[in-house]
Design goal:
The chain is of the alpha/beta class and about 325 residues long. The chain has two domains: about 220 residues, P-loop containing nucleotide triphosphate hydrolases (Rossmann fold, 3-Layer(aba) Sandwich), CATH 3.40.50; about 70 residues, Arc Repressor Mutant, subunit A. Helix content is about 30%, strand content about 20%. It contains nine helices and 14 strands. The strands form three sheets. It has a nine-stranded mixed β-sheet with strand order 6-5-7-8-3-9-10-11-12, with helices on both faces. Helix 2 crosses helix 3, helix 5 packs parallel to helix 6 and helix 8 packs across helix 9. The radius of gyration is 25 Å and the shape is globular.
Length: about 325
């Protein structure tokens, strides 16, 4: 009899190789708290047996941040606020950059903590997997874990370990593999992901799946020459938002968070006082100014109207507060209905 017959007869199919006892929580035993791997100003952000993520747009300096995490783990004190009460090994895997650029990242980690950059150091292993196929990258990552058994694994470009980050089953399978690796090797795996243009959500089903399982999610946003790092999600106490910039030695250093610009600035810049704009016209102006998709522009217009930053009149036109100009229905040919 097969699985369906067993279900019909009330006898669930059983796998004799599946040991449930290892999955059941035994409340009679005392389990220690998760061992910290990385802290940020004393706040736990990464512990053994867990995964975390750094997310942000391209060129937001995510690699500088993850390199700083590696430096803090390897340092005898701290770096950029990151430190560890543990000792051990870091494996840094890059899937996007050329070997020459990955070489620079490795040397930057060593320079930041005062170690010689012209020789290898046992606590740091760096690998470049750009030339491999997604399946081979995943296989190579597993082999690197088995060989070096790092306490901290940084995967800069985790989406490149699967063929399609938008495939639900493949994304869930990779996320499960990452969690299995973190448990089996008792390490922490820090993954780097891109966010969607115009938003803060990590790309694809992989981004959604991985963020649900993450202990900490650090969101990086570029603001000119400064990058601002905020706690998007934390299972532990959230860390305080901070900013860094790249100094003359091409190393990240802490700096002040740039003053936030008023949200209405963008509308004040693109809209003339006393003029009413059709919805499609305003969408195009927003797209050109902020380099966002049509859906993102429409969302910004909707939120601005709800917040009173711009005003929508009865015939579907938009204008700045205090600058209403009457227009007829015939003047607006594309009401967003």
């Amino acid at each position: 009899m097969g699985f369906v017959d067993d279900c019909i007869m009330g006898r669930p199919a059983q796998d004799p190789k599946f040991d449930l006892s290892s999955l059941i929580i035994d409340l009679s035993k005392q389990l220690p708290d998760p061992q910290p791997i990385v802290r940020l100003w004393g706040n736990l952000i990464a512990s053994r047996g867990n995964v975390s993520a750094v997310v942000g747009l391209a060129k937001s300096r995510k690699t500088f941040l993850t390199a700083a995490v590696a430096s803090g783990f390897l340092s005898s004190s701290d770096f950029l606020g990151f430190d560890t009460p543990a000792t051990g090994k870091v494996v840094y895997i890059d899937t996007e950059q050329s070997r020459a650029h990955v070489h620079k990242v490795a040397r930057r980690i060593l320079r930041s903590i005062g170690l010689p950059t012209n020789r290898n150091h046992d606590p740091l292993v760096v690998a470049a997997l750009r030339e491999l196929t997604p399946d081979r990258r995943k296989e190579a990552t597993g082999e690197i874990l088995r060989r070096y058994k790092p306490d901290l694994l940084i995967l800069d470009g985790v989406a490149d370990l699967c063929n399609d980050p938008n495939d639900l089953h493949e994304s869930e399978a990779l996320t499960c593999e990452l969690m299995r690796w973190s448990s089996e090797y008792e390490n922490h795996i820090l993954c780097v992901l891109h966010t969607n243009p115009g938003g803060d959500k990590a790309r694809g089903h992989l981004g959604s799946a991985l963020l649900r399982k993450s202990e900490t999610v650090m969101l990086v946003k570029a603001d000119g020459d400064t990058s601002v790092v905020a706690p998007q999600y934390c299972r532990n106490e959230p860390f305080t938002e901070f900013a860094f910039r790249i100094n003359a030695e091409v190393l990240p250093e802490l700096c002040s968070i740039p003053a936030s610009q008023p949200k209405e600035d963008v509308f004040a810049e693109i809209m003339e006082t006393g003029k009413v704009y059709a919805h499609s016209e305003l969408v195009e102006l927003i797209r050109e100014k902020l380099n966002v998709k049509e859906s993102g522009a429409k969302m910004k217009i909707s939120r601005a109207a709800k917040a009173g930053i711009i005003v929508k009149n009865q015939v579907g036109g938009y204008y700045l507060p205090g600058s209403q100009v009457e227009v007829s229905q015939s003047e607006l040919h594309d009401e967003p209905f």
